[in-house]
Amino acid sequence: MLSQRCKYALKAMVDLARASGGSRRVSDIAEQENIPRKFLEAIMADLKKGLLVASARGKLGGYRLSRPPDLITFGEIIRLIDGPLALLPCASQNFYRRCEDCEDETACVLRRVLIDARNEVAAVLDRTTLATALGGSSQSQFAAAVLTDKSPISAG
Amino acid sequence: MLSQRCKYALKAMVDLARASGGSRRVSDIAEQENIPRKFLEAIMADLKKGLLVASARGKLGGYRLSRPPDLITFGEIIRLIDGPLALLPCASQNFYRRCEDCEDETACVLRRVLIDARNEVAAVLDRTTLATALGGSSQSQFAAAVLTDKSPISAG
DNA sequence: TTTAATTCCTATCTGGTCAATGGGATTAGA
DNA sequence: TCTAATCCCATTGACCAGATAGGAATTAAA
């Protein structure tokens, strides 16, 4: 299950995507999406550190996506906030960690199953961008190129 | 991510499946799978309450699967110990719960994506039984019938 | 009948993490 | 200078996961 933090992050990112490049204040997002303002502040900071959003300070400040919505996937956001998609670290691509209790990982039956599972989730979440989720069938040419290609972005 | 508890449960169930119907002592499973014995005791109690295993007390006691290995899926075990497969309760079939902060669930973009994701994981985990995981292509006739059918067992 | 080995039951501890809040420093536009 | 925003730091409270302890109940073999 995702943490509350991560759910809020996803909602905020979708909210920003709807603003189509424009800037939004934390308090506006918080109100619209029913998220505690102070909590959302902290979450936006994480998203910024992860380079998924950019910010402007002072009056008229706010947050905006740092990339077009068709270049930001759900998988990316979830990994930034909550970490691995896989059900066990030993089945993860991006957050791999060996199981202490497992003698021979390559022979582990459980691991094989969980790798299958993680590949299926990753396929969905790395394919789905903020843009596609919003129903926009408008995929930028750049995005199309990237996602068809075997670039590291599509790797789970 | 799965809890440690759930990982241990899965390993124990695979261990029991290898015993092909035979009984195993907690201490033996614990040693073989590198699981703290007392902790495993508690986990086996959960599995028993969930009717996935049966037990015999006293000397020569132990645990065994309560059904043939090709009638026990990974999804079933995970749901019993950790709960929902879905990333959010509102995207779950078996543990559905509404999001407090969501005004109109049917219009929620996020939910739609997460339902897709959960369906993919569920497909893998509800299809994979202890038997298939162990590489046994031997599926009992009963199992084949059940899994082909639209019985509640295959429902996510 | 004793003994040994097992499951079973209840209670407890400890550390860590999540969710959220508070208070103020910094920045920038009007 | 005033206002309104992001930013930074610290902390709180609640909760739960992981694990352990000690012993009661049960059963079969010796």
What gyration radius of chain A follows from the Cα positions, in whole Å? Answer: 17 Å
Q: Helix amount of chain A, in percent?
A: 40-55%
Q: Per the principal axes of the C-alpha atoms, what is the gross shape of chain A?
A: elongated
Uncertain segments of chain A: 137-142, 148-156
Distance between the termini of chain A: 18 Å
In DSSP terms, counting alpha (H) and pi (I) runs of 4 or more, how many helices of chain A?
Answer: 7
Description:
The structure is a homodimer of 156-residue chains. The first copy, chain A, has 156 residues and is mainly alpha-helical. Helix content of chain A is 48%, strand content 5%. Chain A has seven helices and two strands; from the N terminus they run H-H-H-E-E-H-H-H-H. The first copy, chain A, has helices spanning 4-18, 26-33, 37-49, 74-81, 109-127, 130-133, 141-148, and strands at 53-56, 62-65. A two-stranded antiparallel ribbon of chain A has the order 1-2. In chain A, strand 1 and strand 2 (62-65) form a beta hairpin. In chain A, helix 1 packs antiparallel against helix 4 and helix 2 crosses helix 3 (37-49). The longest helix of chain A is centred in the last third of the chain and has 19 residues, at 109-127. Chain A is elongated, with a radius of gyration of 17 Å. Chains A and B meet through helix 1 and helix 5 of A and helix 1 and helix 5 of B. Chain A binds a DNA duplex (30 and 30 nucleotides) through helix 3.
